[in-house]
Amino acid sequence: MSAEQPGKSPAAKGIGDQEHLRVLGYEDSFHRSMSLWANFALGFTYLSPLVGVYSLFALALSTGGPPSIFWIVIVGAGQLLVALVFGEVVSQYPIAGGIYPWTRRLWGKRYAWMAAWVYVWAMLVTITAVAEFGSGFLGSLIDAPVTKEVTLGLSVLFLLVAFAFNFSGTKMLGRVARIGLAAELIGVIGLGLYLLIFQRKQEFSVFFSTMGVEGDGNYAVAFLGAALAGLFLFYGFEACGDVAEEVANPARGIPRAMILTILVGGVSALFSFGGYVMAAPDLQAVVDGNDIDPIPAILEASLGTVGAKLFLVIAITAFLSCVLSLQAAASRLMFSFARDGMIPGHAWLSKVSPRTAVPVNALIVACSIPLALCLLIYAGGSLTQITAFAVIGIYVAFQAVVLAALRQRIKGWRPAGPFNLGRAGIVVNIVALAYGVFAMVLLALPGKTGVFLDDWIVLIGLAVVMGAGLLYLFIAKPHTNSHQPEGDAIAVAALLRAHPGNAAPAPAAPGKSSPTSVSD
């Protein structure tokens, strides 16, 4: 962190965090006890390359072969552009909740309501999926039988332990996130390097060999089919902005944390994925789809029984940190949504504990709905079907921000935070949007199993969530309960540039609510 006074952010001519928030129409509700390092750790453990690589390693290799590793580079570069756009937005709008307040202030209430509705459900089902995946690691560590009852019990345990840490306050959240960061770095970079250097069983040229995965078809089709190897990995950096009101100097620090999350996460994923490929004793069996869970065997062969158990401890720590970060991000989004009166029960959901300064009721919901989804899976639901729309839902929400930012730029918006891309901003914005559309098309492509539900489950899931949200939006009209500013990016930028009163503030755009002035 810089040596500025605590609570000060150079967003606009020395404006402080409280003043910046007041310009945006809010008062401080949280303790600013999260450092830049802890903020980065939160985003990194949400992104969790260990979880992502482990979950998709076999699928990526059986679909696209060893060259599927290049999707990590492609998606990492695309998401870095998205992170740069987010950085400019959060630098002007360091408000809790991320996606919702950004889309509201860049576009409007109804647009923001839909973006946040899709995003919060995507996060809730992602919490469920990570807890379910983590239960397998915990079960292996304690040698528990693989039964539905054990999976349910261990998944619930993950959710409740993460909730307890979150409930303890922002300092505890940051502390556990840093521990999770250390576990992730050991589990991905440390282990990856060890496998690459000491347990290598393949030549590096293997990453340019399809190993026959395309069959009689075109390899380009197979490679595109493996895109999920990267697309599933690179989100989570936006969580750094979800807790903006709990971070000192957020307008300057959070963009750095987002960029660092992408860069370190990408390098970590490359080492991890590459290490597993190079150390696989029978790589062809993985590529052929005959070994659907190859990593335990790779670890056992490379590390021995004791080493494999130690890795399980590291992996469980990473999974717990990932659930913790997801719960924190989801609760802050719901709090921000509720603070503006945009959802049922908003008075209850917007309450912040006077002791721990966390949105406890929103945290309860962020834990309870995944618990209910775990019960649904136990009762016979499919984890794949329940979580199918999660990734595309998150990409839809991300691109809602990117599109709204581009719309404001075309109208004349020049971001006023300390993190600013200058003239390059509009070029980055356009390319980030093009990348996002490309990614969503890849995610939405139907499968080829011949089973309608399985082939179209991603779009069906997205349609159900968006359809329900649109029905509620037009029937209940939740946006009419809120009177906070919207679509005021140009006006707020003028206010921030005019602070501290050495020039007259620019008036709000016609037809838009004015942001609160600097003085009370």
Automatic annotation (TrEMBL):
InterPro entries: AA/rel_permease1. It is found in: Membrane. Gene3D superfamilies: Amino acid/polyamine transporter I. The chain crosses the membrane at residues 36-57, 69-90, 111-130, 150-167, 179-197, 217-237, 257-279, 310-335, 356-380, 386-406, 426-444, 456-475. Pfam families: AA_permease_2. It is a multi-pass membrane protein. The keyword Transmembrane helix applies. It comes from the Bacteria. This is Amino acid permease. The lineage of its organism: Bacteria, Bacillati, Actinomycetota, Actinomycetes, Micrococcales.
